[in-house]
Amino acid sequence: MKERKLSLIASLNSQELAAKVSEHLTVPLKKIDVEQFKNGEIYVKAEESVRGTEVFIIHAPTGNLNENFIGLLVLIDALKRASAGDITVVMPYFIYSRQDKQAAVREPITARLVANLLETSGINRMVTFDLHSGAIQGFFNVATDNISAIPVFAKYFIEKSMDNIVVVSPDAGGTKRARSFAQLLNAPLAVIDKRRTSHNVATALHVLGDVEGKHAIIIDDIIDTAGSIVEAARCLKEKGALDIYAAATHGVFSEPAFERIKGSPFKEVLVTDSLPLSHSQEKIRVLSIAQILAEAIDRIHSNEPLSDMSLFKGTTLFG
Amino acid sequence: MKERKLSLIASLNSQELAAKVSEHLTVPLKKIDVEQFKNGEIYVKAEESVRGTEVFIIHAPTGNLNENFIGLLVLIDALKRASAGDITVVMPYFIYSRQDKQAAVREPITARLVANLLETSGINRMVTFDLHSGAIQGFFNVATDNISAIPVFAKYFIEKSMDNIVVVSPDAGGTKRARSFAQLLNAPLAVIDKRRTSHNVATALHVLGDVEGKHAIIIDDIIDTAGSIVEAARCLKEKGALDIYAAATHGVFSEPAFERIKGSPFKEVLVTDSLPLSHSQEKIRVLSIAQILAEAIDRIHSNEPLSDMSLFKGTTLFG
Amino acid sequence: MKERKLSLIASLNSQELAAKVSEHLTVPLKKIDVEQFKNGEIYVKAEESVRGTEVFIIHAPTGNLNENFIGLLVLIDALKRASAGDITVVMPYFIYSRQDKQAAVREPITARLVANLLETSGINRMVTFDLHSGAIQGFFNVATDNISAIPVFAKYFIEKSMDNIVVVSPDAGGTKRARSFAQLLNAPLAVIDKRRTSHNVATALHVLGDVEGKHAIIIDDIIDTAGSIVEAARCLKEKGALDIYAAATHGVFSEPAFERIKGSPFKEVLVTDSLPLSHSQEKIRVLSIAQILAEAIDRIHSNEPLSDMSLFKGTTLFG
Amino acid sequence: MKERKLSLIASLNSQELAAKVSEHLTVPLKKIDVEQFKNGEIYVKAEESVRGTEVFIIHAPTGNLNENFIGLLVLIDALKRASAGDITVVMPYFIYSRQDKQAAVREPITARLVANLLETSGINRMVTFDLHSGAIQGFFNVATDNISAIPVFAKYFIEKSMDNIVVVSPDAGGTKRARSFAQLLNAPLAVIDKRRTSHNVATALHVLGDVEGKHAIIIDDIIDTAGSIVEAARCLKEKGALDIYAAATHGVFSEPAFERIKGSPFKEVLVTDSLPLSHSQEKIRVLSIAQILAEAIDRIHSNEPLSDMSLFKGTTLFG
Amino acid sequence: MKERKLSLIASLNSQELAAKVSEHLTVPLKKIDVEQFKNGEIYVKAEESVRGTEVFIIHAPTGNLNENFIGLLVLIDALKRASAGDITVVMPYFIYSRQDKQAAVREPITARLVANLLETSGINRMVTFDLHSGAIQGFFNVATDNISAIPVFAKYFIEKSMDNIVVVSPDAGGTKRARSFAQLLNAPLAVIDKRRTSHNVATALHVLGDVEGKHAIIIDDIIDTAGSIVEAARCLKEKGALDIYAAATHGVFSEPAFERIKGSPFKEVLVTDSLPLSHSQEKIRVLSIAQILAEAIDRIHSNEPLSDMSLFKGTTLFG
Amino acid sequence: MKERKLSLIASLNSQELAAKVSEHLTVPLKKIDVEQFKNGEIYVKAEESVRGTEVFIIHAPTGNLNENFIGLLVLIDALKRASAGDITVVMPYFIYSRQDKQAAVREPITARLVANLLETSGINRMVTFDLHSGAIQGFFNVATDNISAIPVFAKYFIEKSMDNIVVVSPDAGGTKRARSFAQLLNAPLAVIDKRRTSHNVATALHVLGDVEGKHAIIIDDIIDTAGSIVEAARCLKEKGALDIYAAATHGVFSEPAFERIKGSPFKEVLVTDSLPLSHSQEKIRVLSIAQILAEAIDRIHSNEPLSDMSLFKGTTLFG
To answer: What pTM does this model have?
Structure first.
């Protein structure tokens, strides 16, 4: 009878999150030799056998996004040729997720291209966190599991035992996410409204809902240059909010994000380690998704539903 | 040297729009024999040669949506086996476009499935109108052209020489569409806001922007049961709007749409013939996309860009 | 180690046969939520986890053939995206099986199209009963198991302890099927001959073989409008046959089948529940294939050969 | 502007038919270098450019069937890599056409395999003659044109100005083919009936229809060992037929076909050159399909319908 | 829970090696019925169930290379349709491996074609021995294991306890192989140099390294017509070598190989049974790879790494 | 009738070679908008229509190899979705060409992966120059044209009217390339021999052939760190060679190549602009392949054979 063991593998420059998952799973990381030649070509080699095993590759890298992605594809090729039984790529932050449609003619749809490249290289399943657009799951033919990190943030605030909270969506599009977060915290909801009703007038921020005298938590999926959440924080301050927090799954933090956050009214900005933070930064706190990920991998490996996963009573991490 | 002629073909129950396109193109429709056996199986046969031609199938049917779609796939199979040189499906209203993501676990992504079924059957290109979600273009590997019907509505109102107009988006998500419509009409913009800020309170409609003493035109992509646009019209009326119009590319008109519109404050509700209207209905006016479609087909066939298409100076129908 | 459990699922409008199979297997049906929107679009959602399981979908529906087929494809998509380990579609009556070749130029080969659509949606195996044409198995790249229902009919007549039987093939093409049925019953064989030797003369039925003073059983694969078997029954009556029976795997029963059978010399017409009969009908008796199907599913799931299946000593249900 | 010229190429050991087609088309055969190494490996090389041309490969070989087929696949690979614009394989006799279904469990469906191998190698279209089973067209995803050689035989007998003819189908399955042949000759039809009504009695031949005092022409698709047609000829003789002919598209002529025909009552046995006859044989006459093939290729190349092809007024060669 | 048993199957004309592997594995060969019709078509049928098993097909045939390959593809099709769980083709000598690139324009790359044909037929993995070119593994998308037979030869010479050995590469390209062989024997290395420095001068053989007074073992991957190794042996003799051996994994032995070897200075020429030798031949000794193969199959079946396989301490058979 | 025009496009950071090709072809480069977001994601958009045209993308970039490759794939996706008629990627230096086989177990075959990624993205043809390994053409299913730059170097030396030349291959593996270069120059050949006959002795360079008193030209495909050609130059100097040159198609020039060449006995080192040289470097001369490329593109576009291309009488640039 064939056994199918679990192989856990860190993708290029992804040791940080992978090591934490490995610890939670009590499954050691398989040794992979990675080198980069002087002309830039990436070389990988699996130092240990993965034959017939169910491989999970953790891809949450620091450094050059495109190089790391090529490195991932090369790694998948090596594992496929080494007779891996099944390959799941865990990519908490899905790259190119904001190029998911053509905003103008003759544009690419790069998120679909990324899906095609992964499938061609030989993957059998994807695991992501808080995808920017749900349609990206439809770019794949293989099964995909999209996990939510929102309960991680909810747990953090619940354990803080904060009272008098209001959850704030930074724009109309994020209302659904904010509402489910508010339900976890049993808190009311407010929405920042970028009213741009006529085309010659500058945008002004309005707050729909009551924030005065409340601790406000802005919830989002991605923080990139941090422009809009910092602006939102200022607006909330003006409207009389007390402590102001932000929580977002993916901390891309392109310049000048750190500078902006430092000078903002935020008390704390929370992100997960879906994208590693090279140095600790003022006001920014990182909550880890490693434990959730470990449980998800364990459930996938043992064919148990992910929909039963829960950080605390009555919540689900999935869907 | 090989010539590649154009074959124009009406899909099942799609003679209405196809005939108009045929007239504009001055290209006759190829004769297709369609039968349905008593057990429901659909039979098609091309009565004329399509060998080596560039085939355009117009699919804008009346009747059973799923049956018509199976009929389309059977037709594609017949044409592919009859040595069609190239097959473009023109599906102005893309079916299952609202099932473009998983709103809950273990749901299908049916819009992607539809794309897969069409590609497997043998198509080489798609033409659609005002897709509900731009990501659907990413569900295809073949090239897709998504045309906008908004200039058709703009032309209608410009020719009416109406003054004092405000364009209204029925929800925050449709603001981008409404803004580009407003630009064509050189009119201001308002947005209907479904404020649902706390989770125990009923939704109330607010209007962001000034509508009092103005003729209001609500713009949307799909009118299905007409619930939300009729509600929006009432709200606009309360706020002092004068004549109220709605314009939407796709008139699905599921029950009780006609009833609702009849009893509404609307002066006129405009849709296109992307979905045929079996009988004329009170207050509903149908503007045809046949001429645009004819021009698009002609340009695709002669390798000219669609981005140059224009109904009137300074507008584009594409993207 | 990975276990692979069995998930049994009823396709759209296929609860009747699926429930019987479920009972024989003592495996409950997984709960599937199915809805149809007013515009005709079908929505499905698996309410229970199927992750990593070996899924068997029973597709033997009542109602609209094409809608049910689209529903099946949507269901397959949902299960594939829900990480089903393996998907087998059990379609006792294979739709469009009579469009398995081009009888004229520019026809489709719809049975091949159906195979392509199923494979694209994500199936891994097919199970069918008494396929109209053996070549349809060649339309699939995935493995297909085609089971015979003939022993079900044989068992019925053997248990009746009828003597003095003759088995009758309704045309020359069905002789092989009739001969294997005759062997099970240890009975002689007759063939109805539609002699159409010159092209201006009307068809006349001849009976090759001796039927006088015998109980005749006509055996066929499909009864559609019942025209030819009723004509055959009349001819057998004239030639002096005693009780006359018909047995066919698939009771399509398009109009005016029930009317014709009612007014015919048949004592009894036997079909299976490969296609559900909404109401009981005069002279028509339905024998169930549920038990055979349950055994086949059990054997496929446990990797035992289907060729060993037997309803009674010395027969096989397969091939 | 791109021109697409026609390249005509003889497959391995297929010079005979290819040369005749070349002459009819007045298009020279492209030079192909073919070698076979001592260990059996086949080497081919196109000596002339085929870049961007529409290639037609004539495959009607003498010698080892399997070796010639491998040689064909190797040739297709070479032409695809040499930038052929489009590749059509003309295989008048489709190999493995009698293994088109599983007659028993665990058999292959080799005709489907052949289709897969051709498609994988890079073909874009197939041309065949009188396929043994129409379902084989469904084994291909690419377009296939199946041409009938029956008018070639009809023309031969019409030019002979024979009177008093009866057309004979050698079995019930061939009645459709025989009837269309009889219509071309305006002659009556008879059918040989292999009555095997009970399973312990030897087969006896019966003739349905009147043959006495008439010249009989048996029509079939394949003559392999010639056993059944020779038996049929004897039976016709007994029944009083005058001159007896046979006509079949494909002369496979496996041993002891020539011996049997020599000793038979046949006046003449007609076949086409779909399979080359190495030596002239007593009583066997070969009619060429080269002219039809040349016209078909010309029509495919110039995108004209094949259904208009005709050898003489009122007939079609296609479907 | 699903078990996955091992099925061992001999491909056409491959009983010799397959039987030995079967004995080492103590797993009986599954019974396959193979027939060849008079027109050359090959028929196969699996007589025993392979449902859900992990199938290993041993393809090391005698006779016609192309016919045997077609037979292999037909066998794969039959097994795939019989629900084999997984199919591995063991082809110790990879056919057409010397046509792995285009030496001139418009040539095929037949080794890639062979890979495509195998993948299309339905294989899941390949096992080969000492591939002529490593790039052939890159012609496959499925996993491939390439095993080395060099340790088999090393073991033979070590057990002979020969002293004073020099390992000889017959050309510069084979130096890497020879060096690893020399390491196993702890022997020095020499290289035959075909110096062809100016283009008008005939080739002369030089020996780089010291062979005088030593027993020389020439090592190569393929012996075809044996021209170059016999020439090399003569040259070594001239340079004062004592006993001269050759060892090559694949004994193709095209004419006049046996004649040449018989008349050569070789003491013994060693090959493996990757290609069966119909009769014993003077000076030629066959060492079997059956035991290695049996171990490799066992390891693949039980998901153990092949890299740990060893014939004797400190060696690996893989890579 | 459909025209198919030529679109010439510079890939990311490939303007240098693309501009030269554009000038030779007198076809302007299509305008492409390229941006890189702060997080590294690449955005491209075709500013001009490519609908139905035959697109040639020149990919010969400066800068980050992996980023440029991702950028190429994104560009291909954009062009495919913009209805490009046909896409040819011209990649003079094929990246990852040295990872064309597994040198050890569990390595990737990255050159095959690159081929798969390009095909998946939507290319129809490849053009390369002096591929490191001919088998890479076999990694593609699409047609590939591999052009030789050797005549470019030959022309340079012929125009210099140098006498008394010897062509030198830097190792045994390059003898074939060197011999064809020597034939163009009508010069004798020498080979550098890295004799490593026993495994404990350091490598020593030998020169096979006569170089004393001659001008030596070393010919190779790639110069990376320049270690071996500089070593070879020193050895030639010792053996009495006069002026020493090197010529290689691809100047990768990884560190410390420039330093080494500067301090070497070389008079001149020639490379092509298949890889752009950012600054002029001492002793290094760049010859352009732009004219050859322009001619190749023109011939592909007009379906003329590449094998007729010639830089001067009697030579071919192809194969």
So the answer is: 0.96
